[in-house]
Amino acid sequence: MKQSIFLTGQFLLAMPGIGDARFDRSVIAMCSHDERGALGIGVGSTINGLGLHDVLQQLEIAPGVAPDASVHFGGPVETRRGFVLHSADWGGQDTLDVAGKWRLSGTLDVLRAIAAGAGPSRWLVALGYAGWGAGQLDAEMTRHGWLNVEDGAEDMLFDTPVTDRWARGFAVAGVDLRLLSVEAGHS
Question: Quick one: three-class SS letters along the chain?
Fold first, then answer.
């Protein structure tokens, strides 16, 4: 079986010393990656003081039965744009299947369904995303900065506490964080 060079359905973990404070200790769920570029949703941190009920209120959606879950910092691009990563038991307008591991929805119908108790059984909400142009992520992957992890998708998204996802990702990859340096090698 040919292994894809693309990272859709995997996680990117920011290496110690990545050199960009916006991505320090980041965990990014890769939702799309091909020859045209890449898009991922950050799932390694939440936005302080912002809950789902705040977002629903801004969108004039009654919270209904939706819990007031924390909202994730999805990334530095379009930070007012919302996304829901969720289980495969729900699909709506423009829902994207991510390598059969989870789904991505970016339209209001998923939020309305969650509020009504008719949405996906497992989900998380994020504002913003991480994006790369054609070939940009591929080039970044050849330098110090990111580690991709293929396994642990549903567990990482829905069962691992946000504050533990970064360390858990390295553990799943078999990497001992204590052995990593914050500096890249130089020759």
Answer: CCCCCCCCCCEEEECCCCCCHHHCCCEEEEEEEECCEEEEEECCCEEEEEEHHHHHHHCCCCCCCCCCCEEEECCCEEEEEEEEEECCCCCCCCCEEECCCEEEECCHHHHHHHHHCCCCCCEEEEEEEEEECCCHHHHHCCCCCEEEECCCHHHHHHHCCHHHHHHHHHHHCCCCHHHCCCCCCCC
